[in-house]
Amino acid sequence: MFEPELAGLDREAIRQHYQGYSWLGEERVYSPLDILVCLQRRQFRPWWFETGTPNLLAEMLRGRGLLSFDLDRLPSDSSLLSRFDVDDIASESLLFQTGYLTIREVRQWGVRQDYRLGFPNREVRKSLNDFLLDTMAPASSRRAAPALRLEERLAEGDFEGVERHFRALYAAIPWEWHTRNDIARSSVPSYYASVFYSHIAAAGLDVAVEDSTSHGRVDLTVRLPGRVVLFEFKVVEDAPEGSAIAQLRARGDSDKHRDAGLPITLVGVEFSRETRNIASFEVEAA
Question: Phi and psi at residue 56, in whole multiples of 5°?
Answer without folding.
Answer: -60, -40
